[in-house]
Amino acid sequence: MIAPAFPPSSPPAHAVPAERLPELLRRMPKAELHIHIEGSLEPELMFEMARRNDVQLPYASVDALRTAYDFDNLQSFLDIYYAGASVLLHEQDFYDMCWAYLERARADNVRRAEIFFDPQTHTARGVPMRTVIDGLHRACEDARATLGVDAALILCFLRHLSEEEAFETLEAALPLRDRFIGVGLDSSEVGHPPEKFARVFARCRELGLHLVAHAGEEGPPAYVWSALDVLRVERIDHGVQSSKDPALMQRLAQDRMPLTVCPLSNLKLCVFPQLAQHNIRELLDAGLAVTVNSDDPAYFGGYLNTNYLEIFAATGMDAGHAYRLARNSFEASFADEASRARWIGELDACFASFA
Ligand code: ADE
Ligand code: ZN
Fold first, then answer.
1. CA-186 nearest atom, ligand 1
2. What is the tally of structural domains in the chain?
3. How many Cβ atoms from other residues are within 10 Å of residue 297's Cβ?
4. Is residue 149 included in any domain, yes or no?
5. CA 190, CA 187: separation in Å to the nearest integer?
6. C-alpha of residue 354 to centroid of ligand 2, in Å
7. Could you tell me the CATH number of the domain that includes residue 209?
8. Is residue 12 part of a domain?
9. pLDDT tens for each residue of 160-193
10. Which of 23, 197, 226, 314 is found 20 to 30 A from 187 (Cα to Cα)?
11. Three-class DSSP labels, 68-116
12. Does some domain include residue 92?
């Protein structure tokens, strides 16, 4: 859990001239805590897998597929995202997708990645749970050994399905319990409040799994309250609708509850009409433990550093904000204490040497 002290010590913002801020954003070490691995599947790799697995995609070409990436809301994206995942059949497919993401993460100076996966999207098509988890896990192991990226998996339940199906998914995954660190809740938010999953989250809590949930992406502040008080999550994914409720803002700030915010996702899914109107700076300045993340980078126009660069350019945040966001990302991660301290030390050294 993130430390209550606020604000964390940060370097003087004036020490970094505005024209060098992009270089600092790229170079600083950081963690990514909100990435759906199926949302990192680039069209080129998707078509390659469709070819080798003999799966028919409803698009004629990579270009035709990219043209379809023009979303009005979360559901219009999810329809295409689930169709894209249909090419994933074999352990090697899951490995290749995850490895491609981890190489991109390394290039963005990501030290730690906590990666969501949606097993129900695959088991519903007859892919065994073990195939999914083994492929993703092997890529994470290789990344630790050869890329220096520390990666861990978080199993997400699809909230448009029933709690009973979530329980079945948990049962199927439990023989592989040592290969994921927690559970999350994703997919269509409105109409599927967190409390629908109260019992399965209580069971996961008993099992010692970490708990996170998407809440307040499109859904109301009430969903953030119930993620906190009913599901008892340790992080809120998105949470940007919280700014509509002053009492909720106070609660989130007081608890230093991490919010894994995804700027380009919010833009592409029309949560905010323009990046300049995004409320991340307001949330951060109100003392919330905000982090920056890419959500589904193959669909939303960029990986983690692109999210940092574009949201900083649009909102005028400075080096002090950059430090707080990167530090929050490590403090909010589920990595062990020693690793978090080491990465924060690297972050401090990066800022100290950046004169
Ligand atoms: N699954 C993948 N991306 C998602 C998002 N942004 N919200 C909810 N579910 C998702
Ligand atoms: Zn998400």
1. 9
2. 1
3. 27
4. yes
5. 10
6. 32
7. 3.20.20.140
8. no
9. 999 999 999 999 999 999 999 999 999 999 999 9
10. 314
11. CCCCCCHHHHHHHHHHHHHHCCCHHHHHHHHHHHHHHHHHCCEEEEEEE
12. yes
Active site annotation includes 346:
no
The sign of the CA dihedral 60, 66, 68, 73 is: positive
Task: Give the CA angle between residues 107, 85, 39 to the nearest 5°.
Answer: 35
Query: DSSP code of 125?
Result: T
Cβ neighbours of residue 72 under 8 Å, at least 6 residues apart? 270
Residue 41: is it exposed, middle or buried by C-beta count within 10 angstroms (0-12/13-18/19+)? Answer: buried
**Cα separation values, 345 from 92, 323, 351, 352, Å:** 36, 12, 10, 10
| Cα 276 from Cα 149, distance rounded (Å) | 31
**Containing structural domain, residue 131:** 25-354
Which atom of ligand 1 lies at the shortest distance from residue 262's CA? 6
Q: Which amino acid belongs to residue 276?
A: A
Q: Which tens digits make up the pLDDT trace of 237-294?
A: 999 999 999 999 999 999 999 999 999 999 999 999 999 999 999 999 999 999 999 9
Locate 102 and state its tokens.
């981890």
Query: In the structure, which protein residues have their CB atom closer than 6 angstroms to any atom of ligand 1?
Result: 36, 39, 74, 81, 186-187, 214, 217, 265, 295-296
Active-site residue (options: 217, 218, 234, 331): 217
pLDDT digits (tens, 9 = 90+) for 305-335: 999 999 999 999 999 999 999 999 999 999 9
Inside any domain, residue 248: yes
